C-alpha cells in the first residue's frame, strides 16, 4: 500500500534522509520513530509530496507519486505535525471542502459521527481561526477520516490532544486498520507506539537503524520480554556512532 524505496533528501549540503526503504502493508499500523532531527517529518513530507525527494521512489496504492501524482494523492490522507486550518472556513466547511476536492460528497454523511467522536460537532459552525491547538489537531484528523483514503500518514498526531481525544483517535486509527488501510504514524510516544503499532521503523541521523515488530527487536537485541520498546529505542539510537 505504501512503499518507500531508497528515499534520500538533502537540504543544500546536509542530508536529512539517506537511502530509506520500508513498506506499510494493508491492514497495518507502522510507527516511524527516531530522536529529534532523525528525518521523520522530512520522510513524511516527501511521502505527502510536500517535499521533492532528492532521489528514490514512493508508491501509494501502487501509484508512483512522481509519475502519477493525482492517483497517488487520491489514495492518501495526511495529518501534518502543525495543522493550519483555513481561518475563514468553519469546521463543517473544512469537511465539505475536502469532500469536494476528492469528489466524495457522499462521505459527508459520516461528518456528524466523525465530528462527534472528536468532540467537534458542537463547534461545527465555528471558524478555523477560533479553534484551540487541540481542536485544530482534531479538525485535521476529521478531514483525514472524511475521505476514503487507503494510506494514512500521521505526523505526531497525539501531541496536544486531551486524554479522551487521544483515546478516540487511537480507536479511529485501529478501525481504519481493520478496514484494511495502511497507516504510518510518526511519534515520540513509545509506550503508545508499543501498544498501537504492528511494526516500527527506527531512524537515526536520516538512516534506518532498525525495523520490525517489538518481538523482532527483542530477538535482534537478545533482550528479555520485560525490556520495553523505550529501552530498546534508547539502546539502538545511542549505539550508532556519530
Ligand atoms: N527545510 C529544511 N531546510 C534545511 N534542513 C532541514 C529542513 N527541514 C529539515 N531539515 C533538517 O533535516 C533533518 C531532519 O529533520 P526532520 O524535521 O525530518 O526530523 P524529525 O525526525 O521529524 O525531528 P523531530 O522529532 O524533532 O520533529 C534535521 O537535521 C533538520 O534540521
CATH topology value of the largest domain: Rossmann fold
Task: Provide the CATH superfamily of the largest domain.
Answer: P-loop containing nucleotide triphosphate hydrolases
Tally of structural domains: 2
CATH architecture of the largest domain: 3-Layer(aba) Sandwich
Structural class: alpha/beta
Biggest sheet, in brief? 6 strands, mixed
Number of H/I helices: 9
Any ligands, ions or cofactors bound here, and which?
adenosine-5'-triphosphate
Strand order within the widest sheet?
6-7-8-3-9-10
Low-confidence spans: pLDDT under 50, at least 5 residues?
none
CA radius of gyration? 18 Å
Which percent range describes the beta-strand content? 25-35%
Quick take:
This protein is α/β, with parallel strands linked by helices. The chain is built from nine helices and ten strands.
Question: Could you explain the architecture of this structure?
Answer:
By secondary structure, the chain is α/β, with parallel strands linked by helices. The protein folds into 2 domains: 2-75 and 149-239, 3-Layer(aba) Sandwich (Rossmann fold); 84-148, no CATH class. Helix content is 36%, strand content 25%. It has 9 helices and 10 strands. The protein has a 6-stranded mixed β-sheet with strand order 6-7-8-3-9-10, sandwiched between helices. Helix 3 packs parallel to helix 5 (133-146). It is globular. 38% of the residues are buried. The model has no long low-confidence stretch (mean pLDDT 93). Adenosine-5'-triphosphate is lined by residues 11, 16, 34, 36-42. Keywords: ATP-binding, Nucleotide-binding, Transport. InterPro entries: AAA+_ATPase, ABC_transporter-like_ATP-bd, ABC_Transporter_VariousFunc, P-loop_NTPase.
